[in-house]
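Page 42, continued from yesterday. The earlier attempt failed because a stray header line got pasted into the input along with the sequence. Redoing it now with the clean sequence only.
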Amino acid sequence: MTEDKNYSVNQFLDEGQRGDTLSATESINQLDEWARRTMSEYILSSIDDRGVATITINRPERKNAMGFQMLGDFIKTVADLGADKSVRVIIVTGGTEGCFCAGTDLSDLKTISGTKTKLRGESNEAGKWWPLVACPKPVIAAIDGPAVGMGAEFTSQCDVRIATPRARFAWNFVHRGLIPDTGAGTWLLPRIIGPQKALDLLYSGEFLSADDALELGYVKQIVATEDLMAAANAQADRFLKGAPFSIAKIKSMVYEGLERSVIDHMDVHIANLKECIASKDHVEGVTAFLEKREPVFTGE
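This time it went through. Structure tokens are written below.
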């Protein structure tokens, strides 16, 4: 794994995300301004006629760093799109060219006493901690530029990651006296790239380059910046060919299967297989095959 000696995590954060030069009054005033803004200004969402939704993290003045209200809006947007029957696939990207998400905005965090900081949910509330994993739809991360802290955690929660050459990832929580804030870095990341490689990144907090991420299997492909969304949409097109009913079952079985015994997994497998066989999507899939046409799935 190569180390970028010319650009550290702190240098990136110093360029706009850290916020540790703000006074408490400035931070509070800034929080008041954020509260006055609507969800659509920071978390954008759209659905095209294919049923592909795009969530855009859009806060360029802070490198797409997440404030608490903004995070709540992000979680709600993911949940709403996950429940929308017209949505088949979700793409998550950054609205600022050259930046995916700079993590938690520390000027926001700074205004709250460590003894009063509230966690986003209880341990069994997966939709609050891992909203992208809990979402029943395939989720594709389209990453241009740095994904730091919570931003890196978001990419771990996505099912497939596509990046540009300037994408880079850092789980820099140890630099702030924390552990990975969503728990994805300590549970999902080791399962994606292996414990040794994950611990190297978690202990050091250093950047992982796009090339190294590709070599580790963390990202599926690297494309030119101008081709990023086209590549993400091409990936979405591949998923659109499958039945939504079975895709939702497969996603939950894969993630939940990471912690089940084989016997328990097969119990779930048999129950889900019975449901798939009885589904309208299965009938349509078989009928379309026999009629030599493309299936029109409904997710039922």
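Notes: The radius of gyration is 20 Å.
Reminder to self: strip header lines before submitting.
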